[in-house]
Amino acid sequence: MSEILRVLQVEDSESDAALIVRILEKAGYEVQAERVEDDAAMRAALAGKTWDAIIADYHLPGFDAPAALATLHHTGLDIPFIVVSGTMGEDVAVGMMKAGAHDYLIKDHLARLAPAVEREVREAHVRQERRRAEASLKFALIAAEEANHRYHLVADQSRTIIWEVDAGGLYTYVSHVSEAVFGYAPEELIAKKHFCDLHPDEGRQEFASAALELLERREPFLDFENAVRNKDGRIVWVSTNGSPVLNDRGELAGYRGSSTDITERKRAQEALRASEERYRLISENTADVIWLLDADSRRFTYVSPSVQQLLGYSPEEVLGKDMAVALTPESQEYATSRLTEVLARFANGDESVRTQVHQIDQLRKDGSIVRTEVAITLLQNQQGGVGEILGVTRDVTDRLQVEGRLLQAQKLESVGRLAGGVAHDFNNLLTVINGYCDMLMSELPQDEGSHELVAEIRTAGERAAALSGQLLVLSRKQVVQAREVNLNDIIGEVEKMLGRVIGEDIRLESVLSPSLGCVLADPGQLHQILMNLAVNARDAMPNGGTLLIETTNIDLEEGFAGPHAEVQAGRYVQLKVTDTGVGMTQEVLSHLFEPFFTTKKAGEGTGLGLATVYGIVKQCGGSIWVYSQPGQGTNFSIYLPRIEPSGTAQNEPAQATPTVRGTETILVVEDQDQLRKMTERVLRDHGYKVLDAADPDAALIHSKSYDGTIHLLLTDVVMPGMMGPELADRIKALRPAIEVVFMSGYSERALLDRQVMESAGAYLAKPFSPKSLAVKVREVLDSARAPA
User: Fold this and answer.
1) What is the sign of the dihedral through the CA atoms of 336, 338, 339 and 341?
2) What residue spans define the domains of the chain?
3) pTM across the whole model
4) Which of 147, 538, 659, 731 is deepest in the core (most CB within 10 A)?
């Protein structure tokens, strides 16, 4: 087999370089050659490969043989350097040899190239072997020379203190590292200090006893950790190894050993211990469940104690179990498929799946289901794969319920806003329709056929007005006449009526608190609540049953208000209406208060009854909760804010219908033309002088320009450009003695402006009849004349 010859050629001519290679190959070499032309290429070649010889052309543009030789010397490599040249004088050749070249050849006489290369390569190998031998000899001499001192030299140049003590425990040798670790120089310790003297005062006696007992046993010891008080008072920790030293007679002469400063390690261990303790405290005291799951077996390797509170399992019952231990069947399928997908995507380099958040149903130990939010993080192992999965599980059942209630409230608010707008315009039209019906009926004889037709129109108008009222309650924009009332009185008023509504096959019972507090509410609206709930209960008991109405005072604390986010802690009157009917499913309960939602057959209900109840309760500042299960009846619990009684909570006595005619001047302001014209006609028919205005600006002009007395302002609340209360204030500033009656179906700002409007005038709710209009106007005018 041919000998391999690795040649680096410093040559700019490819043909000359190829010639040299052919000459060497003819000499029996297997040549591996590389050609370079500049300093950078030569340095790269020398750094990247091992060469047997360098053959350099003397003359290269910008990089000649002397420069190439200097580059070789700079690297410190011993490689035969042979110069070839087309022409080379003797003085140049001598100069190259003095500079370190091993041989030179003329390109026209390359016959001795192969022998020269062979000779120089062989001599280079000899030189290398000689250097190796010299280095080995030198090392051996150094090793022999320092054999007796190596022990101490190693000690003095490390962070480990080498020491020797005699049989009495006094230091006989200490390496120089003692000064860096203990603060004492060796001369301060040798023959002057007992090894126990460096131990802190606290526990020194116990340490000395244990150490002396160890010495007496003449046994070696390893990794004995103890504290040392530094010269400046600081405490350092050392790990000590030692072995007994015996004299020629086999007697204990002392101990020899090493002490390594482990203060930083101890601090790191303490920091780690503190960190682990903090983690333990966090994981054991948070309501969230923190866990670790082995990615391969998908079994739990750690579970925090809070799993007991969340799922009813102790950590020991979960450790080592499959991740499906507390998942519903549906959640098991979801979690398994999702985790498999995430691990596969991560293995393919998708970093976006490292952290995931999911909502799943989990199965408690008692069989109940809890909705949880699970955040997982993939933890990589040393091989770059997923070793473990860190997870945090949080109970979000209450949060989702609150979000659901908020969504429901927003939905009701949206529908209510629409319903309120429709009802406002509807009430204006109904006032006109019902008003003219009343006028026609008063003019037509009862035995005339037209009278009956008009009466039917009037009846339909009343039903429409009732429906409009429900829409206003739903929107919570109904202007109510709230006053202090006692729920027991309201229940007493409607009990007989309720008996007729629910039928004889349903037993009506009531348990009313005799010391019940008062609430601020519209009595008519409380009637509506009781009637609607009674009708709902009747429909839920087709085969009869019991309807129970209860009242009591109740103080709700934060503990109740917490899970019932809509209820603030405070003092309430509770109204409970319970039936023994068929109950409701969770699906029905989730839609119960939605407008137009009903489980009845088509034509049997509007779906506004319970929505109306909800709107009234909210308008009163209260809350309503429903508890029901299929086959176990239903309980409605209503909480209305309790107020301190003033002694005036009583039903107002019926009053005789007052005289409804008059001669005073009334300014009517209404932007709806038909309603304004009807109102004017009713008032004129009752003897009043009427000034009419289609908008607030016209009303102000009348107030300023009319020379006579304007006794009463009858104005709508919601008008373009100016609200009724503002108009009333401006006219009162001009005519302080004027009385005010507000007409309103609802006001967008009714609740906000209630105090202003109550101080400024009375209410007349739309739709109103001609008679109720005349009565209200007369009442206000007469009350102004009554002595204070």
Assistant:
1) positive
2) 3-142, 150-267, 286-395, 483-641, 665-785
3) 0.37
4) 731
